[in-house]
Amino acid sequence: xxxxxxxxxxxxxxxxxxxxxxxxxxxxxxxxxxxxxxxxxxxxxxxxxxxxxxxxxxxxxxxxxxxxxxxxxxxxxxxxxxxxxxxxxxxxxxx
Length: 95
Ligand SMILES: [Zn+2]
What we know:
It is a single chain. Strands 1-2-3-4 form a four-stranded antiparallel β-sheet. 3% of the residues are buried. By secondary structure, the protein is an alpha+beta fold. 26% of the residues lie in helices and 33% in strands. It contains one helix and four strands. The chain has one domain (3-77): Roll (Ubiquitin-like (UB roll)). The chain binds zinc ion. Zinc ion (ZN) is lined by residues 10, 12-13, 16, 44, 46-47, 49.
């Protein structure tokens, strides 16, 4: 491939070019491992340095935050409401 538009200069070795590849993205979530097959990434043709596409990572992290917020909300609904210690009771009145 000689598509120069998508080659990125390698920060790791400084001489290689990183070419788009697709590779599984592994993400550890507590006890669980999440795998996203065929994730957009780049690999250096000299040193083999690999990194994932930033836009892809942003998207994944955004979705994970949404999912985490959703599951927290659902967990709260499912459990009997526990009295939580009220943190900083004066925080809202401080203005
Ligand atoms: Zn490199």
